[in-house]
Write a structure and sequence with these properties.
Blueprint (H helix, E strand, L loop, with lengths): L1 H19 L2 E8 L5 H18 L3 E6 L7 E8 L2 H13 L1 H10 L11 E5 L11
Antiparallel strand pairs: 1-3, 1-4, 2-3
Helix pairs in contact: 2-4
C-alpha cells in the first residue's frame, strides 16, 4: 500500500509539474464531403484569431494524407481548467456565433463532433520552436 501511495503521489506531482508548462490539446475534425475547404477558410479567416482572443495558442494545423475530409490541429492552454474556460468563452462569443451560423449556411461543415485529447510534453520531448 505504501508503494501505491508513493506511485500515486509521484504521478500527481508529474501531472502538476507538466501543467506548469501548459497543456496541449490535439483536436480532430471530420467534415462532410466537400466541406474541408470551408473548414479551412473558417479557421484561416476567423477561428485562429478567436482562439488567441480567448487565451488559446495556435501550434499547428495538418491534413492527414490517408484520411480525407479531416483536419487535425494542436492548440496550447495554460491548464486543463484554463482550456475549459477558454472553450466556454469561445463558444459564447457573439462573433463566433455569427461565423458558425454563416459558415454552415450552405450545409453543415462537420460530419461529427470534434475529438479532443489533452496532452503534456514528456521530459524527453524536443522543445517546440516559438
Amino acid at each position: 500500500m505504501k508503494y501505491l501511495m508513493i506511485l500515486l503521489m509521484s504521478a500527481f506531482a508529474f501531472a502538476a509539474n507538466a501543467q506548469e508548462n501548459g497543456v496541449y490539446e490535439l483536436r480532430t475534425y471530420t467534415t462532410n464531403e466537400g466541406k474541408l475547404d470551408d473548414l479551412h477558410a473558417r479557421f484561416r479567416d476567423h477561428t485562429m484569431r478567436l482562439f488567441v482572443k480567448h487565451g488559446m495558442e495556435n501550434i499547428g494545423y495538418w491534413e492527414p494524407i490517408d484520411t480525407p475530409n479531416t483536419l487535425i490541429y494542436i492548440i496550447k492552454h495554460k491548464s486543463v481548467d484554463a482550456a475549459k474556460a477558454s472553450w466556454a468563452d469561445f463558444i459564447n462569443d457573439p462573433e463566433w456565433k455569427v461565423v458558425a451560423e454563416e459558415s454552415n449556411r450552405d450545409g453543415q461543415i462537420l460530419a461529427e463532433r470534434p475529438k479532443s485529447v489533452f496532452m503534456v510534453d514528456t521530459d524527453y520531448s524536443p522543445l517546440l520552436m516559438e
